[in-house]
Design brief:
This protein is α/β, with parallel strands linked by helices and 150 residues long. The chain is 55% helix and 11% strand. The protein contains six helices and five strands.
């Protein structure tokens, strides 16, 4: 089994950067994916990340293609999702939360001044034993005990 140093949690911000060519971090996200592949890093994400990814990507699609039908938007969203799901070494997982973990998530929110979703990601990483996160979201820079990969 690989150590947690060989695993990278993918944040929605990182996934969005991979799919939006006009995104400020599009090129860097591509470089990091190549690095992760070369280093045979295991990549992980939780469905909560996909939820935010879908919401933001759908907004980009509607902005870029305002005349698209609902079906056309969903086809583009499906294609972006398939692109993410085809990343080498990707594992979709879910952390098993106990009641105390949810209460601890509130402490993480407060301690690091994070949005609820970001605190849930940090707690999920903790439960799963993952120390690395690929993200361009600077909010994660405040969190002690994780390695932010940009």
């Amino acid at each position: 089994m690989k150590k947690s140093n060989d695993e990278v949690f993918l944040d929605s911000n990182f996934l969005i950067s991979l799919q939006v060519t006009r995104h400020a971090f599009f090129a860097r996200a591509g470089e990091l994916v190549m690095r992760f592949k070369e280093e045979e890093m295991r990549l992980s994400l939780i469905p909560l990340v996909i939820d935010e990814f879908w919401y933001i990507i759908k907004g980009y699609i509607k902005t870029d293609f305002p005349d698209d039908s609902k079906e056309a938007v969903m086809r583009k969203l499906n294609k972006a999702t398939r692109n993410v799901l085809s990343l080498d070494g990707l594992e979709i997982t879910n952390a098993s939360f106990a009641r105390r973990d949810l209460l601890n998530t509130l402490e993480i929110m407060s301690k690091y001044d994070l949005r609820p979703r970001d605190a849930l990601i940090i707690k999920s990483m903790e439960i799963l034993g993952v120390k690395n996160i690929a993200t361009f979201d600077t909010d994660f820079d405040r969190v002690k005990g994780i390695n932010v990969i940009k």
